[in-house]
Design a protein that fits this description.
Largest sheet: 4 strands, antiparallel
Strand content: 15-25%
InterPro entries: CarboxyPept-like_regulatory
Distance between the termini: 105 Å
Number of helices: 5
Order of helices and strands: HEEEEEEEHHHH
Helix content: 25-40%
Protein name: Carboxypeptidase-like regulatory domain-containing protein
Pfam families: CarbopepD_reg_2
Shape: flat
Low-confidence stretches: none
Mean pLDDT: 83
Number of strands: 7
Structural class: alpha+beta
Radius of gyration: 36 Å
Amino acid sequence: MGKLQAQDRQDRKVIQLSGIILNADSTDAVAGVNIYVPKKGRGTSSGRFGYFSMPVLEGDSVVFSFIGLKRQSFKVPENVENDKISLILTMEVDEIALAEVEVMPYPSEKEFKEAVLAMSVVDPMTISSSNMSPEMLLRWAEAMPASGNENFRYFQQGLMQQNQDLYGPRPLRLLDPFAWAQFIRSIKRGDLKSRD
Protein backbone atom coordinates (compact mmCIF):
# COMPACT_ATOMS: atom_id res chain seq x y z
CA MET A 1 0.00 0.00 0.00
CA GLY A 2 2.90 2.37 0.81
CA LYS A 3 4.47 1.95 -2.65
CA LEU A 4 1.16 2.71 -4.35
CA GLN A 5 0.80 6.02 -2.46
CA ALA A 6 4.40 7.01 -3.23
CA GLN A 7 3.88 6.21 -6.91
CA ASP A 8 0.61 8.20 -6.89
CA ARG A 9 2.47 11.25 -5.53
CA GLN A 10 5.07 11.02 -8.28
CA ASP A 11 2.42 10.82 -11.00
CA ARG A 12 0.67 14.02 -9.92
CA LYS A 13 1.67 17.05 -11.95
CA VAL A 14 3.11 20.22 -10.37
CA ILE A 15 1.04 23.30 -11.18
CA GLN A 16 1.87 26.97 -10.58
CA LEU A 17 -1.13 28.49 -8.76
CA SER A 18 -1.22 32.28 -8.84
CA GLY A 19 -3.77 35.03 -8.57
CA ILE A 20 -5.04 38.15 -6.86
CA ILE A 21 -7.12 38.37 -3.69
CA LEU A 22 -9.70 41.17 -3.40
CA ASN A 23 -12.30 42.28 -0.86
CA ALA A 24 -15.79 41.10 -1.81
CA ASP A 25 -17.33 44.57 -1.39
CA SER A 26 -14.67 46.49 -3.35
CA THR A 27 -11.77 46.17 -5.71
CA ASP A 28 -9.20 46.69 -2.94
CA ALA A 29 -6.45 44.09 -2.80
CA VAL A 30 -5.97 42.15 0.44
CA ALA A 31 -2.33 41.86 1.47
CA GLY A 32 -1.06 39.27 3.96
CA VAL A 33 -3.60 36.51 3.29
CA ASN A 34 -2.24 33.12 4.36
CA ILE A 35 -2.35 30.64 1.48
CA TYR A 36 -1.35 27.08 2.34
CA VAL A 37 -1.86 23.37 1.68
CA PRO A 38 -2.74 21.97 5.14
CA LYS A 39 -1.65 18.36 4.54
CA LYS A 40 1.69 19.31 3.02
CA GLY A 41 2.67 22.09 5.43
CA ARG A 42 3.73 24.51 2.70
CA GLY A 43 2.33 27.86 1.72
CA THR A 44 2.82 31.55 1.14
CA SER A 45 1.05 34.85 1.72
CA SER A 46 -0.33 37.48 -0.62
CA GLY A 47 1.87 40.46 -1.32
CA ARG A 48 1.24 44.17 -1.03
CA PHE A 49 -1.10 44.24 -4.04
CA GLY A 50 -2.92 41.00 -3.14
CA TYR A 51 -0.87 38.91 -5.58
CA PHE A 52 0.31 35.39 -4.72
CA SER A 53 2.02 32.53 -6.52
CA MET A 54 2.96 29.06 -5.28
CA PRO A 55 3.52 25.53 -6.65
CA VAL A 56 0.81 22.93 -5.90
CA LEU A 57 0.05 19.38 -7.01
CA GLU A 58 -3.04 18.16 -8.82
CA GLY A 59 -5.77 17.34 -6.30
CA ASP A 60 -4.34 19.53 -3.50
CA SER A 61 -6.73 21.56 -1.34
CA VAL A 62 -5.50 25.12 -0.89
CA VAL A 63 -6.80 27.19 2.04
CA PHE A 64 -7.02 31.00 2.07
CA SER A 65 -7.32 32.56 5.54
CA PHE A 66 -7.09 36.06 6.98
CA ILE A 67 -8.25 37.43 10.32
CA GLY A 68 -11.61 39.12 9.89
CA LEU A 69 -12.37 37.44 6.54
CA LYS A 70 -14.15 34.17 5.88
CA ARG A 71 -11.81 31.25 5.26
CA GLN A 72 -12.02 29.81 1.75
CA SER A 73 -10.61 26.75 0.08
CA PHE A 74 -9.82 25.80 -3.50
CA LYS A 75 -9.40 22.26 -4.81
CA VAL A 76 -6.84 21.97 -7.59
CA PRO A 77 -8.52 19.90 -10.34
CA GLU A 78 -7.13 16.52 -11.44
CA ASN A 79 -5.67 16.10 -14.93
CA VAL A 80 -5.10 19.78 -15.69
CA GLU A 81 -4.04 20.39 -19.29
CA ASN A 82 -1.95 23.44 -18.57
CA ASP A 83 0.71 23.70 -15.85
CA LYS A 84 -0.62 27.10 -14.63
CA ILE A 85 -3.84 28.15 -12.89
CA SER A 86 -4.77 31.80 -12.31
CA LEU A 87 -7.42 32.91 -9.80
CA ILE A 88 -9.20 36.10 -8.87
CA LEU A 89 -10.46 35.38 -5.36
CA THR A 90 -12.85 37.60 -3.43
CA MET A 91 -12.99 37.24 0.33
CA GLU A 92 -15.99 38.29 2.42
CA VAL A 93 -15.89 39.93 5.83
CA ASP A 94 -16.48 37.47 8.67
CA GLU A 95 -18.54 39.27 11.29
CA ILE A 96 -18.46 37.68 14.70
CA ALA A 97 -20.57 39.27 17.43
CA LEU A 98 -19.08 38.84 20.88
CA ALA A 99 -21.06 39.16 24.06
CA GLU A 100 -20.13 41.94 26.48
CA VAL A 101 -17.55 40.88 29.02
CA GLU A 102 -17.19 42.73 32.31
CA VAL A 103 -13.70 42.36 33.73
CA MET A 104 -13.28 42.84 37.47
CA PRO A 105 -10.33 41.84 39.63
CA TYR A 106 -12.64 41.10 42.56
CA PRO A 107 -15.31 38.38 42.68
CA SER A 108 -18.01 40.77 43.86
CA GLU A 109 -18.74 44.48 44.00
CA LYS A 110 -18.83 44.33 47.80
CA GLU A 111 -15.22 43.07 47.99
CA PHE A 112 -14.15 45.75 45.52
CA LYS A 113 -15.66 48.51 47.72
CA GLU A 114 -13.97 47.07 50.81
CA ALA A 115 -10.59 47.03 49.03
CA VAL A 116 -10.98 50.65 47.90
CA LEU A 117 -11.92 51.82 51.39
CA ALA A 118 -8.99 49.91 52.94
CA MET A 119 -6.42 51.58 50.65
CA SER A 120 -3.99 54.03 52.24
CA VAL A 121 -3.32 56.92 49.86
CA VAL A 122 -0.18 59.01 50.27
CA ASP A 123 -0.64 62.69 49.55
CA PRO A 124 1.85 63.66 46.82
CA MET A 125 2.55 66.96 48.59
CA THR A 126 4.02 65.12 51.59
CA ILE A 127 6.98 63.74 49.61
CA SER A 128 10.21 64.23 51.50
CA SER A 129 11.86 67.53 50.65
CA SER A 130 15.26 65.79 50.65
CA ASN A 131 14.24 64.05 47.42
CA MET A 132 13.78 67.46 45.81
CA SER A 133 17.08 68.98 46.98
CA PRO A 134 19.34 70.38 44.21
CA GLU A 135 22.10 67.87 45.02
CA MET A 136 19.73 64.90 44.70
CA LEU A 137 18.21 66.26 41.48
CA LEU A 138 21.71 66.80 40.03
CA ARG A 139 22.72 63.24 40.94
CA TRP A 140 19.57 61.88 39.25
CA ALA A 141 20.16 64.03 36.16
CA GLU A 142 23.74 62.71 35.82
CA ALA A 143 22.57 59.11 36.14
CA MET A 144 19.71 59.55 33.64
CA PRO A 145 20.38 58.05 30.20
CA ALA A 146 20.42 60.25 27.12
CA SER A 147 17.07 61.09 25.56
CA GLY A 148 16.17 60.29 21.98
CA ASN A 149 16.80 63.91 21.05
CA GLU A 150 20.32 63.85 22.53
CA ASN A 151 21.12 60.52 20.88
CA PHE A 152 19.99 61.91 17.52
CA ARG A 153 22.08 65.07 17.97
CA TYR A 154 25.23 63.06 18.86
CA PHE A 155 24.62 60.72 15.93
CA GLN A 156 24.25 63.66 13.52
CA GLN A 157 27.40 65.30 14.90
CA GLY A 158 29.28 62.03 14.33
CA LEU A 159 28.04 61.84 10.73
CA MET A 160 29.04 65.44 10.12
CA GLN A 161 32.51 64.76 11.57
CA GLN A 162 32.88 61.70 9.32
CA ASN A 163 31.97 63.79 6.27
CA GLN A 164 34.52 66.43 7.26
CA ASP A 165 37.19 63.76 7.72
CA LEU A 166 36.51 62.48 4.19
CA TYR A 167 37.43 65.82 2.64
CA GLY A 168 40.54 66.67 4.61
CA PRO A 169 42.07 66.85 8.08
CA ARG A 170 40.41 68.68 10.91
CA PRO A 171 41.79 72.17 11.51
CA LEU A 172 44.05 72.51 14.56
CA ARG A 173 43.21 75.85 16.18
CA LEU A 174 46.62 76.13 17.90
CA LEU A 175 48.33 76.45 14.51
CA ASP A 176 45.79 78.88 13.05
CA PRO A 177 47.35 82.39 12.79
CA PHE A 178 43.93 84.04 12.56
CA ALA A 179 42.87 82.42 15.84
CA TRP A 180 46.11 83.67 17.49
CA ALA A 181 45.48 87.17 16.18
CA GLN A 182 41.96 87.13 17.56
CA PHE A 183 43.26 85.81 20.90
CA ILE A 184 45.90 88.58 21.15
CA ARG A 185 43.30 91.25 20.33
CA SER A 186 40.99 89.92 23.07
CA ILE A 187 43.87 90.13 25.58
CA LYS A 188 44.59 93.74 24.56
CA ARG A 189 40.92 94.65 24.91
CA GLY A 190 40.83 93.07 28.37
CA ASP A 191 38.18 90.47 27.55
CA LEU A 192 39.95 87.82 29.64
CA LYS A 193 40.30 89.87 32.85
CA SER A 194 38.38 88.47 35.76
CA ARG A 195 35.36 90.54 36.69
CA ASP A 196 34.97 90.72 40.42
